[in-house]
Amino acid sequence: MTEKTALLIIDLQEDFLPPNGSLAVANGREIINPIIDLLTPGKYKWDAIIASKDWHTPDHISFAKTHNQEPYSTKLLSSPNGSGETKLHTLWPVHCVQKSHGSEFPHEFKIVFDKLLEQQNVPTKIVLKGYLQDREYYSCFKDVWGIHKTECYQFLKDNCITNVVAVGIAYDFCVMNSCIDSADFGFKTYVIKDLTRGVYPDKDRETTLNYENHGITVITSESDVMKKWIL
């Protein structure tokens, strides 16, 4: 079987970026230009490119404000399918509300990505997640309950993808959960660690172990394996 590789750019959005993002991840802007470099035409061989976006309603269930609680507090929430199953959720500051500035890609990335979207020389897509009000999403593949699926899996299958390479924000939340689902769906999955940033960088070692325990290969932009995707 011929290997085909997709680049998966997770939640590179203004609300996750300093200095003004409502849920800014420290040093998040440092990864923008290196990620843009991965999109340089004629430099890397990607067979598909996806950029995901958190895309929340103003009253999303993941927002602390929705529950009149403090950001980063927790609350036991029930499955939206009425099964009675519950999960303990972290409640976040309001972020990535649909069509808000915070939901947008950073300007310099948007210019490059919009051109790829328009040209479609490589199949390129934006995958929205978190637009259903009544459930949390970390993964770009599905909600935390595994009930609602985004377009991500089908897009990868339609383009005969076998391998997924992930970058973006945050290493310990949306990138990690997207990678776990990618591996569970049968894709050989890599994460370029230096092209991510975490909410809790002091726990990076534990986070990396969790990736490895799920069969995900943690690499850097200098790893030898990157050579297989360079033209």
From TrEMBL:
<dbReference type="InterPro" id="IPR000868">
    <property type="entry name" value="Isochorismatase-like_dom"/>
</dbReference>
<dbReference type="GO" id="GO:0046872">
    <property type="term" value="F:metal ion binding"/>
</dbReference>
<dbReference type="GO" id="GO:0019363">
    <property type="term" value="P:pyridine nucleotide biosynthetic process"/>
</dbReference>
<keyword id="KW-0378">Hydrolase</keyword>
<dbReference type="Pfam" id="PF00857">
    <property type="entry name" value="Isochorismatase"/>
</dbReference>
<dbReference type="GO" id="GO:0008936">
    <property type="term" value="F:nicotinamidase activity"/>
</dbReference>
<comment type="pathway">
    <text>Cofactor biosynthesis; nicotinate biosynthesis; nicotinate from nicotinamide: step 1/1.</text>
</comment>
<keyword id="KW-0479">Metal-binding</keyword>
<dbReference type="InterPro" id="IPR036380">
    <property type="entry name" value="Isochorismatase-like_sf"/>
</dbReference>
<dbReference type="InterPro" id="IPR052347">
    <property type="entry name" value="Isochorismatase_Nicotinamidase"/>
</dbReference>
<comment type="similarity">
    <text>Belongs to the isochorismatase family.</text>
</comment>
<feature type="domain" description="Isochorismatase-like">
    <location>
        <begin position="5"/>
        <end position="222"/>
    </location>
</feature>
<protein>
    <recommendedName>
        <fullName>nicotinamidase</fullName>
        <ecNumber>3.5.1.19</ecNumber>
    </recommendedName>
</protein>
<keyword id="KW-0662">Pyridine nucleotide biosynthesis</keyword>
